[in-house]
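Sat 14:20. Reprocessing the chain from the morning session after the first attempt stalled halfway. Input below, unchanged.
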Amino acid sequence: MIASAGGMIHVAVGVHQIGGRHSLSSDTNRTYERFFLLFTNGPPWDGRETIMGELGIELELGVLLGLLLLGCEIFAPFEIETPAWRKLLKWSILIAITLGLYRLIGHWSLVAPIALGGLGLTFHFWWCRKNGIHPLRATPRRRYYQLRNWEWHE
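Finished this time. Tokens:
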């Protein structure tokens, strides 16, 4: 059970207050504490910094770089004829949204590229299956070019 009193979050299972400090009584609760510390600024009772709190914007930049590298490598067959300006615009918008949200909501801004990527991936697989295109290899290639209104070169 989680309860809030005076801005402090208390977890009723296995948490004891000893000498003004909270301690956890079992390995399971220590695992919970590590998870809690990873995604928050830490409990207000001990002032410890968290892994996420120490990273700052570097975490967002690292995740965006990883998404960029994976996205470009995996979906390269689908973007052969796409103009460079369009690819740059797409990534610039995604980066701007993520970094703009970081200023407002911190590390929760990572939900935006992950959610947008999930929506895009869902649409991609649906569209490919609907049109008879393999969703990872973009085959048959001639059919894919025809659907995208690109000129087929033999």
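The two ends are 66 Å apart (CA to CA).
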